[in-house]
Design goal:
The complex is a heterodimer of chains A (327) and B (206). Chain A contains twelve helices and twelve strands. Chain A has helices spanning 12-24, 38-43, 79-84, 86-91, 93-101, 105-110, 113-118, 124-127, 167-173, 275-281, 288-298, 310-326, and strands at 5-8, 29-32, 51-54, 64-67, 70-74, 177-182, 185-190, 213-220, 226-233, 244-253, 256-265, 272-273. In chain A, helix 10 runs antiparallel to helix 11 and helix 11 crosses helix 12. Chain B is α+β, with helices and mostly antiparallel strands and 206 residues long. Chain B has helices at residues 2-5, 12-26, 75-82, 138-145, 155-168, 174-180, 191-204, and strands spanning 53-60, 63-70, 101-104, 107-110, 123-125. In chain B, strands 2-1-5-3-4 form a five-stranded mixed β-sheet, sandwiched between helices. The structure holds flavin-adenine dinucleotide and FE2/S2 (inorganic) cluster (2 copies). One FE2/S2 (inorganic) cluster (FES) binds at residues 149-155, 186-188, 190 of chain B.
C-alpha cells in the first residue's frame, strides 16, 4: 500500500467537510467503513488515496431501528448485525438472508451496509494491477476478448462488470431508500436510483459525488401477505460473490399476485430489476408455468459474452424457483 | 536498544524473542526507537511528512503494547513484525484465506484487513492468548486430537474462527460449525477434521 494518512472523524459533517476540502485541494481522499473491501484495492494499487477517512469513529451511526412503516439502518451497521437482528429476520427476511450470504463470517463481522452498497467491482481485470482496463482509465474492457465468465449479461457495455453487492438486490426489491449527506445537506433517494450504468458513466458505480457519503438506509416493511426469497448461486459453498442472485417479493391476496418484485444480482452492472416480469405477474396465479414465463421475460434482451451464456438459463431458473417459493 | 542507536539492524522479531516471554508478560513495550521501514514488507514510500505515523496502544491477549506504526500498517503486520506474535499468519493479505484471523471484541475478523490504528481501545485475542499458562485451550487440544493441522499454516486462523464461534454459540451443530469456519481456507483440504475438532471441543465443554 502507498502511504496515506488515516483520519478518524467524529461526525458525518466532519467527514463531508474534509472530503470537500481535499477535493478542492485536488488531493485524493476516500472514506471507509469496515475497510474489508477498500483496503484490498489499496493493496493492489488500484486506488491510492492520500487520506483515508475512517467513518467507524463516528459514534452511533450503526443503529438498526424499527419505526412505524419501516427500518432505519445506519451506514455503519455491520452485515452480521443486520443478518442477526430479530425484527429484521422476522420482517425483512430477504435482507437478513442476503446479508448472511455475503462474503465470510470475518467480513460480515467487519463490513458495513454502506460499504456493501458502495463496494467497487470484483472483476479480476479491474482488481489486477496488470490491467489498465476501461474502468481505470484504459481503452478496453478486457472481458470482451478475455475471460468474462462471471461478467454481465444485461445492461452492460462498454464495461461488463457485475454489481457485487448481495444486499443491493434485496434492498431494491424491498423498495429501500438511501440517505446521502453532502456539503449542501442531506437527501433521501430511492436506492434503485443510486446505481449508475456504464453507458451513463463507466468509471463509477453510483451517483455519489466526491464530497458525499451514505448515512442511512430506510427499508419500508413489506405489506402483510408478502413473501420474499433471496437465492444466491456461487461457485462454492464457502464465501464467494454471486454468479447469479435473485431477490423476489410477492404480495398476494388469496392466490392472486397483487404486486411482485424481481431483482437480480450478478447479471448486470447494477442490481437489475426485471420490471417487465413484475408487470406480467400482476393479477396472475403463480404456478410452474407462470414462474417459468416470468423468468423468460426477465431475461429478454440478455446479451451474454462468449463465456457467460450459462447465466441466462441460471437466472431464469432462479427466478422461477424464487417465485414458486414466494407464492 | 544501544545497538539500534548505533544503527545496527536488529529485527523486531529477534529482539522480542530475545527478551523472552517473562519480560513481555507485564511490560508495556515501547517500540518508538525502532524504525519499522527496515522490516520486511515495508517499502519506504512514505508520501507526506508527519501525519502518516502514529504511536498507539494495542491491547492484545490482555496486555497493553505501546507501539509506533505507520497508518498503513495492518493489524496482522504489527502483530507479527512489531509484537513478535507470529501465530497470526499472513497468507493472501486480501481478506480471502483466513490465515490472519484474530478475535476483536469477541468477533473473528481478518487482521490483514484492519489497520492497526483502528484498533485502539479494542480487545484483541490471538492464538497466543488462548492457552492458560501451560494448559492449552480445549479447542487447541481438540485440534491436536483430531489432527486438525496438516501443514498447519491455516491452523491458528481455523482455531480463532472456531473459538469465536464457540464464544457465541457453545453448542453448534455441524452445519453451524462449517459455516463458522467458512472464512478460512485450508490448502491441505483438511476441513472435515477441523470441523470435527470444533464439534469435539463443544461436546467436551459442559
Ligand atoms: C474475499 C471477499 C469476498 C467478498 N464477498 C462478498 C460477497 O459475497 N457479497 C458481497 O456483497 N460482498 C462481498 N465482499 C465485499 C465487501 O467487503 C463486504 O460485503 C462489505 O460489506 C464491505 O463493507 P465495508 O464497510 O468493509 O466496506 P469498505 O471497504 O469500508 O468500503 C467499501 C467501499 O464503500 C465506500 N464506502 C464505505 N462506507 C461508505 C459510506 N458511508 N458512504 C460512501 N461510501 C462508503 C468506500 O469508499 C469503498 O469504496 C467481499 C469482499 C472480499 C474481500
Ligand atoms: S491473510 Fe488475511 S485473509 Fe488471507
Ligand atoms: S493444514 Fe495446511 S492449509 Fe490447512
Amino acid at each position: 500500500m502507498k502511504s496515506f494518512e488515516n483520519i478518524d472523524v467524529k461526525s458525518v459533517r466532519e467527514a463531508v467537510s474534509l472530503l470537500q476540502k481535499f477535493h478542492q485541494q485536488k488531493k485524493s481522499a476516500a472514506v471507509v467503513g469496515g475497510g474489508s473491501e477498500y483496503l484490498q484495492l489499496m493493496k493492489d494499487h488500484v486506488v491510492e488515496p492520500d487520506y483515508l477517512i475512517n467513518l467507524k469513529s463516528i459514534p452511533g451511526l450503526d443503529y438498526i431501528k424499527e419505526e412505524r412503516g419501516g427500518f432505519r439502518i445506519g451506514a455503519l451497521a455491520k452485515l452480521v448485525e443486520i443478518e442477526e437482528h430479530p425484527a429484521v429476520r422476522e420482517k425483512l427476511l430477504i435482507l437478513s438472508s442476503a446479508a448472511g450470504e455475503a462474503a465470510s463470517p470475518q467480513i460480515r463481522n467487519a463490513g458495513t451496509i454502506a460499504g456493501n452498497l458502495c463496494q467497487r467491482p470484483f472483476c479480476w481485470y479491474f482488481r489486477s494491477s496488470n490491467f489498465t482496463c476501461l474502468r481505470k482509465g484504459g481503452q478496453v474492457c478486457y472481458t470482451v476478448t478475455g475471460d468474462g465468465r462471471f461478467h454481465a449479461i444485461l445492461g452492460a457495455g462498454p464495461s461488463y462488470i457485475v454489481h457485487p453487492s448481495d444486499t443491493a438486490p434485496a434492498l431494491v426489491a424491498l423498495g429501500a431508500q438511501i440517505k446521502i449527506a453532502g456539503p449542501t445537506g442531506e437527501k433521501m433517494i430511492p436506492l434503485e436510483k443510486f446505481f449508475v450504468l456504464p453507458s451513463v458513466d463507466y468509471k463509477r458505480e453510483n451517483i455519489l459525488n466526491p464530497a458525499e457519503i451514505v448515512t442511512e438506509i430506510f427499508v419500508p416493511t413489506p405489506k402483510a401477505g408478502s413473501k420474499g426469497f433471496y437465492h444466491k448461486v456461487r461457485e462454492r459453498l464457502a464465501w464467494d460473490h454471486a454468479i447469479v442472485a435473485v431477490a423476489t417479493i410477492v404480495e398476494s391476496s388469496g392466490s392472486v399476485v397483487r404486486a411482485a418484485r424481481v431483482v437480480m444480482g450478478g447479471v448486470a452492472p447494477i442490481p437489475w430489476r426485471a420490471a417487465k416480469a413484475e408487470e406480467f405477474l400482476r393479477g396472475k396465479r403463480i404456478d410452474e408455468a407462470t414462474a417459468k414465463q416470468a423468468g423468460e421475460i426477465a431475461l429478454e434482451g440478455a446479451k451474454p459474452l462468449k463465456d457467460n451464456v450459462y447465466k441466462v438459463k441460471m437466472a431464469q431458473d432462479l427466478i422461477q424457483r424464487g417465485l414458486l417459493a414466494s407464492a | 536498544m544501544e545497538d539500534e542507536k548505533k544503527g545496527t539492524r536488529l529485527s523486531r522479531r529477534s529482539f522480542l524473542k530475545g527478551i523472552g516471554g517473562g519480560a513481555i508478560g507485564t511490560a508495556v513495550i515501547s517500540t518508538g526507537l525502532v524504525k519499522s521501514d527496515s522490516a520486511e514488507g515495508y517499502s519506504p514510500e512514505t508520501s507526506g511528512a508527519g501525519g502518516n505515523r502514529a504511536t498507539i496502544t494495542l491491547k492484545v491477549n490482555g496486555k497493553a503494547y505501546r507501539v509506533e506504526v505507520e497508518h498503513r500498517s495492518t493489524l496482522a503486520e504489527v502483530l507479527r513484525d512489531e509484537l513478535g506474535l507470529t501465530g497470526t499468519k499472513i497468507g493472501c493479505d486480501r481478506g480471502e484465506c483466513g490465515a490472519c484471523t484474530v478475535i476483536i471484541n469477541g468477533h473473528n475478523m481478518y487482521a490483514c484487513s484492519q489497520l492497526a490504528v483502528w484498533m485502539q481501545g479494542k480487545d484483541i485475542l490471538t492464538v497466543e492468548g488462548l492457552a492458560k499458562g501451560d494448559k492449552l485451550d480445549p479447542l487447541q487440544e481438540a485440534f491436536i486430537e483430531h489432527d486438525g493441522p496438516q501443514c498447519g499454516f491455516c491452523t491458528s486462523g481455523q482455531i480463532m474462527s472456531g473459538k469465536a464461534l464457540l464464544m457465541k454459540n457453545p453448542k453448534p451443530d455441524e452445519a453451524q460449525a462449517r459455516r463458522g469456519l467458512s472464512g478460512n481456507l485450508c490448502r491441505c483440504g483438511n476441513y472435515n477434521r477441523e470441523v470435527a475438532a470444533v464439534l469435539a471441543a463443544a461436546a467436551k465443554s459442559s
